[in-house]
Amino acid sequence: MEGKIGLTILMATYNGAEFLAKQLNSILNQSYTSWELIIRDDGSVDGTLAIIEHYCQKDKRIKLLQYGTIHGSACRNFSQLFDWAYGQHHPYILFADQDDIWLPHKLERSLAVMLQQEQLYGASTPLLLYSNLSFIDEHDQPIGVTLSLPKTLELPVLLNENYAWGCTIIINQVAIKKIKHIPISSVNHDYYVAMVVAAFGKNILLNEHHILYRQHQKNVSGNVNKMTFISRLNRYLQVKTTMLEPMTANYRLVDSFYNIYKSDLSTVHLKMIGGYLASYKRGFGTLLSMMFKYKIFKIGVGKNLVYIYSLLLLRGKVIAAFEEGRVHEDSL
Predict the structure, then answer these.
(1) What is the pTM of this model?
(2) What is the mean pLDDT of residues 278-305?
């Protein structure tokens, strides 16, 4: 296997000098060595670029990419990286954050299990593997939190929550071709990728820990302290509009996905997603009925109770914010 299959790792950076060298060293220390790391920086003003340039000189597998004109967020950065990779026809793509630490066998195990799944489902099936991860703090010390992830990630769950974290993902070439482009309106690149693969292929859990996922004040998303039931409940009760922005972003992502792929969707998926979007606009009762019909829920009773409560409070505001954003986009 070694040296025969090239893996392409896409890394988006922005002011990541504090932890970047540790992440780059962990990639250099991978047991599987047939890879390239493509880094696109989003205008860092700290020492990030100097670190990248040093590692590019240190190892020819690491390259700094000058591509595209869209900037301003991690999703936009990854979108441009994906556009570049799509045109290169790479067999497998992985995503890397700038501040994590990869354990030595991440690439080796990701590829080995991906090849097994391709034999099982066929090489023509879009496939995404997502793994578990371990949390560390700013000082590399473990945080005692364990995630419970679903064995497969399907559309009814993805309509309101993603469990495939970008830094754990590997996708095959069929999935790359089906995705084509990650819209910047998707807010989170990994969420959009998982949704496309769920509609046309398989999202499969590799239930192993291959990443030390760093928690610090600059985390863009996925802060473990915000994932507990008590934390969610407190945010909803104390500040009732806390979830308005993420819920609006979620609705926008689903709407974007639906409009791009509705001509390709199966009848069941077409009715489910189209019905979900329409019922969201019609009223809370209609939406709840649609959710029960298609089992459109999060994983965990507590999370669903809080989510339903937030829908009761914020559904109308989500639609208003979505429509306002669409008018703004049309005026640009």
Answers:
(1) 0.90
(2) 95
